[in-house]
């Protein structure tokens, strides 16, 4: 696919998603630091091109499973940003009625099977979603996002084995950001590229530049098409970097300062997108600044409305465990 | 003449009925189709290591009856994902001991998705699993870990005590919209009994008063119901009228039935083939000393296995498992 | 002036002392050394996600302080194998919820090897893990699953309630020849208290009577000890003398101390931050209604969380966790 | 290593081990069928060359972890055959005092860390044994045996990841016998050769003919030497076949009759050994028949003594759970 086959309207929406994710995370960084939001918070900033590159090719019927670093996948999959913000504030109006928080934010109506606090825990879930599609003969696909660290989990190995055996319509997207918490990937993952691991499942595997929306879009697109056609799963490794620490508050002493600077200054996925879309003559600087402004307003409203929204009732702690009691 | 089946056959029949009546029901697990030559679908298959699912692949085909790798975390996790997205999977966990290799998708996903998502998803999954001792299968293939699944909010746990109950409870479990752990105790798998034909459900959460009595309540479930019945007969011989309550479902628990029986008799023994600490037996005893305190005329006794792994040698396994004599001793100790 | 430390620092000190006094003690877990530049051993490290093990790699080096992959089954299983062959590993399971991804080596190996082998091996493993709610960490990072490990014969389970206890109990756990699950409740991690210098052990299996009283026994452990103390003070104001027993160890359990207190007061409330079914609270209540029946003057009350996953929102998490008010209510209900 | 570097004495002992395993399993087949021994019983017959090929190069200080099909590994590692038989009869004189049975038979004094009823469960245990050796700077190695089916387990994936990262002195021996229970390997293991899976750990991997003692001996020997020298782990895949069903009583309808006949008639590891050792002129027919007779006597005695041995006391159920109560 030529990268500029996408229309201006589409690219504007792509940029809007990426900008929204970035802004959402920047807001959170401040809100958590200010003590307004509690819980464990992992930010997606820096990895926007992956979530948006993949999810912009999915419909609501396609199912996505995510990680502890899940805000980006939610926004990319079309989950309402205001309801997300309300969730993080623990409000009754949140996506999960305040019961989930950052690590469990979800919206099944949008095909978002949830962030997941268990590293590797989302992988079998999307494998199961793909199984549903296959058993029922539907043409929707499932996509599982996970980190480099998660590829060491048994759940990764077992799920990919099953998907390979059954040729399930699933795309596994590894967001290789070079670290699992504070430990560099190369200390604990004994392969140079994560794609090597696909050989254990005779699975199709592709590497993408996770900072470049167009590269992710193209490679994910092929894989999704193959999956829809019944040609089985792909492991897509996206090389990326997280711009903040592992969690909000992480002082990141473990990472190389120059390396971090280089990624943040020179490989920002939003900058790369802007440059490419501008150079191709499809979008103009104004387009970007307009979106920037709109996103800023949206997020400001999201925070204000979330702060003003009602808390759940204490009695709500008892509901939603079972369908039938 | 009434038709008799063993528990395995009753379970097989329940699965077949559920699959016929709902195309979203699938069966998956290690060797549930049963290996063999895939070109001859439905022939020569083994149907699970104990043969419980024999023949189902023949009727329902390999799209709906799936042999999985030996990978319980993946198998159960995939079933959870399928359940959350429209299927109603019946997943076989060959032995309950394999909760060790499959706990996460049950503990952290199936049990919690609905709650974490604010009620916006349901997980109509049934995990069938063989529990209990009695086959000299030793420490890693003989555990009664239903206390572990009962302790996890969001899961339901069912333990049938007869072929007929197994069929009706399994049908109800498969059709329940919550994740259910359905135990198949080794002690009842070969038990033969009358099993009604056709489609029927036994509701989850309702205990079954299998014998009425006035002097002491024997609360049992699964393989211990037979022990309780045997003890009740012996007690009758000695002039003590024992009531036997079969719990059928451990979660949700029929507290009303337990307390009603306690109110009637004032004395209770709970018989549980698992180990004692944090067991179902102790859970129920605690409910009695809280909500049933005024009814109590004697200590509540728990007859369980000892706090040890399950031994191999027949002599030791027999010493490990609760017996009718242990129940009589407990009643005796009550004074 | 007495030296004060928070619980995390007390644990760090215990590990350092254990490692200095025995070269077979090693520390392993996800980020326990703390990532960073391996060429500068011991510098800039994070020391665990909560910083508890910070600095240890500097003193003991990377041979004895090992960052593992995010692979709990492999990490804990490897630690079990190391323990069975001569080391005395301290393995960190970052959060107790991750029993989901690490149960098998604990349930089916560590707990059973000694028994299955007829006593011919020992597994001197300590698994340190953070348990409990209170940080809005939600359903998958807030569980108090010590009931699960307590229910497994062959494992010991320890839950300290203060920095000083954490240090002494951890030293005893590391030196114990059986596998020990050592819980670090979130509720006490930042608690500051006096901690004796040097090397001392607090024996496993012995409860600590932290407050004497005559009217009601409050049995607590870990983070609920503070709740019990608060309730005891409030009760004192209302003219009720409450005794507070800190269990310290859940397995082995100090039944004598529990029954002695019950004999004295005739009334008991057990406070447990886990969910109710098959909980430690109910386990103890069951012991009371069996062995302590003659001492009982009132229903035994269990104050626990409800039978739900742990919610995220601060309002809901507060409603989920037991409080001193809940204890007062329970005492009130006893009549 | 030239295959006939081994002395006649050594080869006689090798054959004795293989013959003992075969005879042990044949006895069990009958004893279980006769109802004299209970529990789940998985026989090693057909795979003898692997256990003996590997273990004949190990000392008591080298640690071995096994599977549900563990008798062969025990015998090869030097565990007392009479005590093993007594164990299977559930006797107090058994290796495990009657507490373990077939799936847990063990003797740590001989470096045998036990059969294991959990598929894949022995793999982290031997990884830990190798860690002990590395931490303490000892030169012993650890060996984990497991089946083709076990390579789908998360415990396999996680353990090999750790061993690769740390270059642990361990040899992983996959006994690929073409089936996991009743399911053919190719239906559930999505690689042609198990060695492919080593790529996921950048691990050295070798295939051996599991029916040929000499091939296993040579390839295992190299791997063990590398491990002892600190050069890290190897995955050794041995192609083999089990002569009986999955468990005693399995009617094996799922396996191809001709294929089974071919393995059993033409690829019996004892026959292959006898032919090679005879052709090389190191052993004579008489040597074999002498060992056969000695083994027969040993096993007859083992069964008789086991049957006559005392059962455990019922009270023993309560001991050996904890070291300190
Ligand atoms: C089963 C499990 N183990 C450990 C953790 C703690 N943990 C949370 S995020 C994380 C690092 C994950 O690394 P990676 O998969 O590379 O994702 P990233 O954070 O880099 O996006 C860890 C260890 C967890 N949440 N779940
Ligand atoms: C965790 C676990 N899952 C399932 C089983 C049941 N089981 C016992 S042996 C076996 C087959 C193992 O196949 P493989 O690893 O190839 O070994 P083989 O029997 O062929 O030697 C299975 C599924 C088990 N014991 N443990
Ligand atoms: Mg990462
Ligand atoms: Mg096999």
Question: What does this protein look like?
Answer:
- The complex is a heterotetramer, with two copies of chain A (325 residues) and two copies of chain B (335 residues).
- Chain A is 43% helix and 10% strand.
- Chain A has eleven helices and seven strands.
- In chain A, helix 2 packs parallel to helix 8 and helix 4 (81-88) crosses helix 11.
- The model of chain A has no long low-confidence stretch (mean pLDDT 97).
- Chain B is an alpha/beta fold and 335 residues long.
- In chain B, 38% of the residues lie in helices and 18% in strands.
- In chain B, strands 3-2-4-5-7-6-12 form a seven-stranded mixed beta sheet, with helices on both faces.
- Classes of the chains: A alpha/beta (325), B alpha/beta (335).
- The structure holds thiamine diphosphate (TPP) (2 copies) and magnesium ion (2 copies).
- Residues 147-149, 177, 179-180 of chain D line the site of one magnesium ion.
Question: What attributes does this structure have?
Answer:
heterotetramer; A: 325 residues; alpha/beta; Rossmann fold; 5-stranded parallel β-sheet; two-stranded antiparallel ribbon; 11 helices; 43% helix; 10% strand; globular; B: 335 residues; 7-stranded mixed β-sheet; 5-stranded mixed β-sheet; 13 helices; 38% helix; binds thiamine diphosphate; binds magnesium ion
**Terminus-to-terminus distance of chain B:** 45 Å
- Greatest chain-chain interface? B-C, 56 and 55 residues
The number of distinct structural domains of chain A comes to 1
* Overall pLDDT of chain A: 97
Beta-strand portion of chain B reads: 15-25%
Give, in spatial order, the strands making up the sheet with the most strands of chain B.
Answer: 3-2-4-5-7-6-12
Global mean pLDDT of chain B: 96
What summary fits the major beta sheet of chain B?
A: 7 strands, mixed
- Oligomer description: heterotetramer
Distance between the termini of chain A: 52 Å
Unreliable stretches of chain B (pLDDT < 50, length at least 5) are: none
Tell the overall outline of chain A.
globular
Unreliable segments of chain A (pLDDT under 50, ≥5 consecutive)? none
What structural class results from the helix and strand content of chain B?
Answer: alpha/beta
């Amino acid at each position: 696919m030529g990268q500029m086959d996408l229309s201006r309207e589409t690219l504007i929406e792509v940029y809007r998603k990426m900008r929204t994710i970035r802004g959402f995370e920047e807001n959170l960084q401040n809100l958590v630091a200010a003590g307004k939001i509690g819980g464990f918070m992992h930010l997606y900033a820096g990895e926007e091109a992956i979530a948006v590159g993949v999810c912009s090719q999915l419909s609501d019927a396609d199912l996505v499973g995510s990680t502890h670093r899940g805000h980006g996948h939610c926004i990319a999959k079309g989950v309402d940003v205001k309801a997300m913000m309300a969730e993080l504030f623990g409000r009754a109006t949140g996506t999960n009625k305040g019961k989930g928080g950052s690590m469990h934010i979800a919206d099944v109506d949008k095909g978002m099977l949830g962030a997941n606090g268990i590293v590797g825990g989302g992988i079998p879930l999307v494998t199961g979603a793909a199984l549903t599609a296959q058993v029922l003969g539907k043409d929707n696909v499932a996509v599982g996002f996970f980190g480099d660290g998660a590829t060491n989990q048994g759940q990764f190995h077992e799920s990919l084995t099953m998907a390979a055996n059954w040729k399930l319509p699933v795309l596994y997207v590894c967001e290789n950001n070079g670290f699992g918490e504070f430990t560099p990937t190369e200390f604990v993952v004994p392969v140079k590229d994560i794609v090597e691991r696909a050989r254990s499942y005779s699975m199709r595997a592709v590497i993408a530049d996770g900072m470049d929306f167009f590269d992710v879009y193209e490679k994910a697109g092929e894989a999704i098409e193959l999956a829809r056609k019944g040609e089985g799963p792909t492991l897509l490794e996206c090389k990326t970097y997280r711009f903040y620490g592992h969690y909000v508050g992480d002082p990141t002493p473990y990472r190389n300062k120059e390396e971090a600077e280089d990624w943040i200054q020179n490989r920002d996925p939003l900058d790369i997108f802007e440059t490419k879309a501008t150079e191709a003559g499809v979008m103009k600087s104004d387009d970007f600044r307009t979106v920037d402004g709109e996103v800023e307003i949206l997020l400001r409203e999201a925070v204000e409305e979330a702060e003003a929204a009602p808390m759940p009732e204490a009695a709500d702690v008892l509901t939603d465990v079972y369908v039938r009691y | 003449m009434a038709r008799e089946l063993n528990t395995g056959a009753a379970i097989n029949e329940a699965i077949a009925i559920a699959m016929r009546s709902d195309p979203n029901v699938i069966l998956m697990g290690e060797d549930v189709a049963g290996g063999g030559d895939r070109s001859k679908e439905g022939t020569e298959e083994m149907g699970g290591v104990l043969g419980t699912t024999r023949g189902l692949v023949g009727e329902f085909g390999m799209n709906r009856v799936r042999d999985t790798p030996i990978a319980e975390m993946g198998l159960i996790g995939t079933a959870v994902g399928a359940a959350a997205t429209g299927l109603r999977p019946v997943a076989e966990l060959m032995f309950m001991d394999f909760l060790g290799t499959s706990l996460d998708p049950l503990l952290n996903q199936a049990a919690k998705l609905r709650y974490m998502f604010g009620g916006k998803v349901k997980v109509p999954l049934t995990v069938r699993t063989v529990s209990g001792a009695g086959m000299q299968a030793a420490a890693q293939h003989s555990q009664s870990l239903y206390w572990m699944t009962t302790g996890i909010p969001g899961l339901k746990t069912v333990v049938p005590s007869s072929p007929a109950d197994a069929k009706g409870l399994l049908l109800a479990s498969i059709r329940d919209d919550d994740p259910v752990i359905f135990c198949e105790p080794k002690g009842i798998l070969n038990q033969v009994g009358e099993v009604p034909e056709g489609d029927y459900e036994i509701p989850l959460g309702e205990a079954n008063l299998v014998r009425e009595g006035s002097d002491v309540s024997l609360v049992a479930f699964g393989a211990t119901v037979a022990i309780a019945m045997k003890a009740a007969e012996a007690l009758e011989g000695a002039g003590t009228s024992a009531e036997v309550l079969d719990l059928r479902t451990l979660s949700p628990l029929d507290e009303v039935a337990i307390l009603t029986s306690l109110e009637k008799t004032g004395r209770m023994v709970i018989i549980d083939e698992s180990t004692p600490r944090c067991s179902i037996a102790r859970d129920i005893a605690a409910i009695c000393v809280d909500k049933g305190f005024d009814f109590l005329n004697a200590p509540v006794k728990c007859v369980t296995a000892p706090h040890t792994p399950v031994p191999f040698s027949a002599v030791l396994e027999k010493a490990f498992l609760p017996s009718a004599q242990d129940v009589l001793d407990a009643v005796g100790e009550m004074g």
